[in-house]
Amino acid sequence: MPPKKKPKKTKKTTKKIQERIAAGDNDLEAKYRRGVLDIAILQDHIALQCESVKMVQSDRIDLRRRMRDMEQKLEHERQDYRDVNSDFSRQYKTMQIELTNKVKRLETEVNELNEELALCQEVLRREKRERQQMEQEKDATIADLRHKLDNMEIDYEKILHDTLDSLTCQLSVARQGLEDKSPTLHQNYKGLLSELGQNALEF
């Protein structure tokens, strides 16, 4: 394509162009100032943003460090929890085994004691029966002895009465005999005393 021909400049056009250039210079200066101001504002904004970014990065680093510390602490706590849980589980199993053994031992002791109690109760029942039997036999023996004693008392009383009656009769007969023989005996004794030279009235 052939180059376009430039239009011819007239005085009017040149003046307008000069006015436009002057106005453009004023606009350009204003734009320049505005641009410098905008740049300064942008630089301040960028500086603030950089400061904010630095603070954010510092906070992020600090947060990461704290997060690592918290993770380590959490891991330690988890390990402690696992250790404590393991220890508790071991203690629980040990206590459960000990308790189970103790329960078995106590059940064995209870069974043995129940057997001993049953034997003791049987012995006690047997001894009670024997004691009741002995008491019954003793009561029967006592009753029999009392009966015999009562019979013996009656017999002895009868014998005593019979004996006393017999003695009374014999004494009565002897007395009668002595009374009958008494004068003769006195005479005989007096005679004997006289022969011996004794006075019978002295005796």
UniProtKB/TrEMBL annotation:
Coiled-coil ranges (or none): 53-162
Chief location category: cytoplasm
Record's subcellular location: Cytoplasm, Cytoskeleton, Flagellum axoneme
Signal peptide: none
Keyword Coiled coil: yes
InterPro entries reported for this sequence: DRC12-like
Keyword list, A-Z: Cell projection, Cilium, Coiled coil, Cytoplasm, Cytoskeleton, Flagellum
Alphabetized PANTHER family for the sequence: COILED-COIL DOMAIN-CONTAINING PROTEIN 153 (PTHR28656)
Subunit structure: Component of the nexin-dynein regulatory complex (N-DRC).
Role played: Component of the nexin-dynein regulatory complex (N-DRC), a key regulator of ciliary/flagellar motility which maintains the alignment and integrity of the distal axoneme and regulates microtubule sliding in motile axonemes.
UniProt similarity note: Belongs to the DRC12 family.
Protein name stated in the entry: Dynein regulatory complex protein 12
